[in-house]
Amino acid sequence: MTDFNDRQKGEEAKYAFDEENAFKIAARRNRLLGQWAAELMGLDEEETKAYATAVVQADFEEAGDEDVIRKLLGDLTTAEVDVDEAGVRTALEEKTIEARRQLMSES
Question: How far apart are CA 60 and CA 38, in angstroms?
Fold first, then answer.
C-alpha cells in the first residue's frame, strides 16, 4: 500500500510541477509576444513594457490562447500594422519555443 501512496504522491507532484512550468512558459511567451507586437507598432521602451504586461493580463480572460490572439490582432490592426491572424499565430508558436528555451536555460 505504501508503494501505491508513494507513486500517487509522486504523480501529483509531477502534475503540479508540469502545470507550474506551463504557466511560466505561457506568461513568458505572452510577454515576448507583447514585445514583438510593440516593436511592430513602433512603441517606445516604456510603452513596450506596459503593452507586454497588458498582453500577459489578457491571457486571464479565458482558457486557451484565443484571448491573446484576439488582443494582438485587434491592437495590430488598429495600429495599421500589416499582419494577419496566421502571422500572429506563427509568432505565438515561435515565442512559445523561445520562452521554453529561456526557462530551461535558467534551471
Answer: 20
Residues 6+ away with beta carbon under 8 Å from 42: 79
Question: pTM (2 decimals)?
Answer: 0.84
17-62: pLDDT as tens digits? 878 888 999 999 999 999 999 999 999 999 999 999 999 999 888 8
C-alpha dist (Å) from residue 87 to 19, 22, 56: 27, 23, 19
Q: How many other CB atoms are found less than 10 A from the CB of residue 100? A: 16
Q: Are 103 and 21 in contact (CB under 8 A)?
A: yes
* Helix residue ranges, H only, the chain: 2-41, 45-58, 66-78, 85-106
Q: Give, in degrees to the nearest 5, the angle at Cα 50 between 40 and 88.
A: 35
